[in-house]
Amino acid sequence: MLTLFATLSMLAAPQEGGPFLTFSRRAAEEPDTLRVQVGELRTDDARPHFWMRKAVEGQGATAIEWTDTVRCPKARNAIVAATQIAPPRVYVPGIPVRPDGSYVITMDGVQYELTASAHYDSRISSDIRFTSNVGSPLANWVEGTLESLEDCWSADLPDGERL
Known about the structure:
Distance between the termini: 24 Å
Structural class: alpha+beta
Mean pLDDT: 83
Shape: globular
Strand content: 25-35%
Largest sheet: 6 strands, antiparallel
């Protein structure tokens, strides 16, 4: 029983405040969802560091891999770039989406989602969540992040001395 508890606790995200950012990708025709959580990593370094937990969930199983900004410095660039993702605009019926009044509806494709701590004018007090499909700023950021971190993922948790 103790072994089971130890194994399950390794699969949970480090609990230094939990994740402040989560993003996911799910193709319409595939059963798997890829979800990445990002949280703060305690270190002795004055510069903030972050952990990333990638889980591929599907067909009753979950595969988990980790990285962090200590062992994969390029992860910091991806995390910081999240602050520049243009969110979707609010849609109001009757107000044109495009100058010609048209709009595009995507029925399938890939569903992207982002949930994060958010702020207005320097006050961190809310969360933001938005979804999109292929060709959007969110889709481009998710795909670019996953591609840039492809060689960073490992089954090893971030260094326990810094959790």
